[in-house]
Amino acid sequence: MAYINLPEGLPGIRGPMAFRQETAKPLNELAEVLLRTDNSLTQGERELIATYVSSLNDCFFCQNSHGGIAQHYLQCDMKYIDEVKKDFEATQIPAKLKGLLSIAASVQKGGKHVTPEQISKAKESGATDREIHDTVLIAAAFCMFNRYVDGLGTWAPQDREFYVKRGKQRAEEGYLHFDLYK
Amino acid sequence: MAHISVPDGVPGIRSLVMFRPESGQHLYALAQVLLRGDSPLTEAERELIAAYVSSRNECMFCMSSHAAAARYLFKDKKQVVDFVLADYKSAPISEKLKALLNVAGKVQKNGKEVLPDDISEARKHGASDRDIHDTVLIAATFSMFNRYVDGLASFTPTDPKAYEEMGVRLGEKGYVLPK
Questions:
Q1: pTM for the whole thing?
Q2: ipTM of the assembly?
């Protein structure tokens, strides 16, 4: 049971969002602009960064819901996502994305853990200022979302397939105009 | 020097939201509703929680600017801010606020650090669902802002006067996206 009285049956962040809609609005607008709007980083890459950071923060709900969405965009299976989470350097993902994931990992520890070397390495692999900015902000934002979800003791369905089945729908409906109860 | 090309001499998060206002506008809207909107916690208390979390994340820019805003809002009780930043447990604040700062400190580490005992302690001293919700979200939000500001190595002024001015502006005008 959550630490506060949330509407029944809503998983993860949906309960707190239903509890207080005025704060849900900017949170969802932030997610929409960071993860879905047009960007040189694909939606799949951005959802992957979110999933990865959420796994570092050990947030079950967030890493699985965004993992399910990433699976849809990347047209990959759960094994692929799990391999990235476990050791992205050992995977075949492009060098630029590896550079951005290592920056995201540093942000998760703390802003000052990002080193100039990580930044130059990412730039050498072709990352733009905008891509670096967005990677840092996505990582920082998920450090917020993960804490919101876990700090209030919310409930999450434990079957990982639940999130994979909903990945396509979540990707299509986006973060702005969705029904909290569906 | 910041890790990306942001406007020269503009401090902290301001330089970053000028670089990318599409996301910046929502960050400011979140800060405005969370720290200035309706809440059972006063604006001063909410700024204090923000400053406390930022000090734990060792983010000098955020801690200094929000401590300054808290001092402005606490008015003649402004010394309370420095007492809390030094050691909230012995600070002249209510037991409820101490319990909420404990929750905020746990959220700062990781959401899972918050335990049922932390919540019941807060409830014992009169904390409502909204007190708890807002405390957790402020702590979570500043865990984002602190990482954003330091993760891009944005400019952190060292002159206390600069923060005093920020405190007045934040206290009087709130969170208005720079043009």
A1: 0.98
A2: 0.98
